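FW: tagging you since you asked about this chain on Friday. Here's the raw sequence from the shared folder, copied in full. Didn't touch anything.
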Amino acid sequence: MLPLAISTVVMGVIIVAGTLALAVAVSVVARRRLPREPIEASQDAVSVMFSAVGVLYTVLLAFLVVLVWEQFNGAQERTEQEATRISNLMRDSAAFPPQVRDDLQCRLITYTRSVINEEWETMAKGKSSPVTAAKYEQIWNGFYGYRPQTDHEQTFYGESISKLNELGQERRLRLISSAASIPSVMWILLVVGAVVTIAYLYLFAIPAPLLQHVMIGSVAGLLGFILFMILALDHPFSGDVKVKASAYQSVVTSFDEGGYRRGEQRC
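HL: got it, structure written out here
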């Protein structure tokens, strides 16, 4: 399931308000149509079954909330780690001759800008950017074409290759995170479980109609909000609740302010 192409706030209002309104509307109809005597005579069985269904559904909800939260945090950590690798490579390149240093730093910063301006948009659809992938390959080509001359350069070159491999790993994990989502069968279980849980509330013989409507509406609204939260966090690179590219932007800002660059070359 992919998020709707609308604001996350609007989507949340639609899901929560729609779930609440529908549940209350069904409650009004159910009180008029369902026979009261059999319901009142079955309250003990209804209570037992509702408790069992509630526990099972609560466990499912808790599992998925933890799952999507860890997935969201993992995506955030991968972006920060990748940006850190870029920063380290920028700094290590200062040990190389000026021409090589400037070329490698430009390749790194060009890739970083492409991640921000191009790949962040494609990741919202669970895809990588061919342009950014080409910029990434150019970084490797820059290191392939350099031959360190001194022991000092060889030491930093070896460290840089290790960090570049780590950068590739973090990039791959970031792209995998953008495409990962909860399977459709789990969404079916979530929706069906919510419907069954709310349906049991119609079987409680509460004398005051308003009180029953309020109880059903509050449960339905809460379940709708939890489902919306799972949906919003399930896609960490899309919507309003998403992982930001601030870690990469920090690297670009540091480069533009001269934190890594030596000389006047601009990329």
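FW: The chain has a mean pLDDT of 88.
HL: agreed, and Residues 43-92 form the longest helix (50 residues).
FW: great, closing this out.
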